[in-house]
Write a structure and sequence with these properties.
92 residues, 4 helices
């Protein structure tokens, strides 16, 4: 356990950041699963809505340095490609 006041504060801050990071990673995973599930349906409006949600979450994670910005960009590109080729999305 930390002894100094500043070290105790660091411990509290790290715990808060850890919780926030866990929530964001969970949001990313659930949004990706939801998007891939909506791809099975033929409703393009729901697909676009799910894709925009994933985009927002990925951008937020990249801005918070949870994932690298280039990784977010790469993921967004892959998902757009999946959306534009629905027959390949069923294979993935």
């Amino acid at each position: 356990m930390p002894q100094r006041r500043a070290a105790k504060k660091d411990l509290r801050q790290n715990a808060k950041k850890h919780e926030k990071n866990l929530q964001l990673t969970k949001q990313i995973k659930t949004a990706l699963k939801k998007f891939k599930k909506t791809l099975e349906g033929k409703d393009t409006a729901k697909n676009k809505e799910a894709l925009s949600l994933v985009y927002r979450i990925l951008d937020k994670a990249a801005s918070h340095n949870l994932i690298h910005p280039k990784k977010a960009s790469r993921k967004k590109s892959q998902l757009a490609k999946l959306m534009n080729t629905p027959e390949k999305a069923k294979e993935a």
